[in-house]
Specification:
Layout: E1 15-20, E2 23-28, H1 54-57, E3 61-68, H2 75-92, E4 104-111, E5 116-120, E6 123-127, E7 145-146, H3 152-159, H4 172-179, E8 197-203, E9 215-217, H5 233-243, E10 250-256, E11 261-263, E12 266-268, H6 272-281, E13 285-289, H7 296-311
Parallel strand pairs: 3-4, 3-8, 5-9, 8-10, 10-13
Antiparallel strand pairs: 1-2, 4-7, 5-6, 11-12
Amino acid sequence: MRYVSAALLFVAGSSATFACGSEVVENRFGSDGGASATGELPDTGPQLGGEPTEEDTACKKMDLVFVIDDSGSMGQEQSNLKANFPKFVQVINKFTTKSGDPIDYRLAVTTTGVTATIQTSFGGMSQVGADGKFVKASGMSRPWLERTDANMTTLFQSMASVGTSGPSYEMPLEASRLALRERLKDNNKGFLRDDALLGIVYLTDEEDCSTTSRNIAQSSTIGGNCIGAQEATTKYVSFFDTLKQGRERWATAVIAGPTDCSSSFGSAAEAPRLKSFVAEVGKTAVFSSICSGDLSGALTKALETFDAACQNFAAPR
């Protein structure tokens, strides 16, 4: 797949010619365009016999999920994501397959909130989250966007306005697991395609507190802002490996705190679990700082990582 140079990603109104392999491609940016409990994989239908050709296994589709923190401190980050999204779309719209056709992509949004009861030394408290349910903006016929949808920028900006009243114990990894397992049975049904690269963007200013338990008791294992014991991050890596039938068929970009840090957005806590998750995934993952003051660089790295993964997309095992 051909990829627009990262140096051009967030420069609207520019014009450039760049080489991709043996071809020379002319690109012109326009205006911004606007400010499962069973663990069963989705049925992919009958498979044809014979050895797959390079064209058969080439990356032609992307299923992209944004997991956005909706806790009280995330208002400015959500606004910056929405401000940079038009240029994100401009670039991904330039992605093409090896045969020169536009990449067929989908975009969905969920939050880091997971419903659970938290038991502390001060008593019990309940938090209610989206549990991986995709956001559906007004006027949408389904809870995700597709390349050909009109008003994509406006709709995504509405979807990304997830608010700041969500759970204070963020579980981005668990939320993404729920989105692509339990919620595929109901709200998110039909989103995931077997022949598409899965790309997940996590945006949070806190540590990941993911657990499969819905009754979390305080214990001696407390990490950062988390209470109780969390699931090993390797379990989530294994989940996505199984879901997509291989590490070469999914990619992730985490935008979080590399350390306890601050920026014009406010402060962020170090996210060591998310850093471990990225390290365990390897070459199809990238970690960017939410404290950079602007998300354009982090979104650039996300697109570069998804592009590289798409170029190395493998046939199902």
